[in-house]
Backbone:
């Protein structure tokens, strides 16, 4: 972030970590008791995001001609908790291989706009559009 500032950036939006415990991979590997997300992973992401906010506050204090912001994780949480007007599934929209990525030559779901994830890790275009709208 300091390098961006040194190159002339004065308005910077930094994405926080998302709810990494809610990815299809995390749920498949570490989910228990039929919970929708892995709480320990999300707690770790929350601690990181708190540090990120603190860092941005320091940058804003020290670099008064710049503005560093974050959307905050709670804004993106609405994608997972269903607070939006849309119905999404957390399950990826393609069949995945043993490392959680889409299997080449396998057709993905025809209704990809209702999926938050393309594979076990990567958000779909629909999720990215909503995230961008929340950030904007």
Residues:
């Amino acid at each position: 972030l300091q390098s961006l500032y040194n190159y002339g950036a004065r308005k910077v939006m930094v994405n926080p970590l998302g709810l990494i415990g809610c990815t299809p991979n995390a749920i498949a590997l570490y989910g228990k008791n039929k919970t929708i997300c892995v709480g320990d992973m999300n707690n770790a992401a929350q601690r990181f995001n708190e540090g990120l906010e603190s860092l941005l506050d320091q940058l804003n204090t020290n670099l008064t001609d710049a503005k560093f912001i974050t959307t905050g994780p709670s804004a993106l949480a609405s994608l997972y908790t269903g607070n939006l007007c849309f119905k999404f599934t957390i399950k990826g929209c393609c069949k995945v291989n043993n490392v959680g990525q889409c299997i080449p030559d396998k057709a993905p779901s025809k209704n990809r706009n209702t999926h938050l994830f393309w594979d076990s890790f990567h958000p779909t275009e629909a999720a990215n559009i909503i995230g961008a709208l929340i950030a904007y």
Summary: The mean pLDDT is 84. The chain has five helices and two strands.
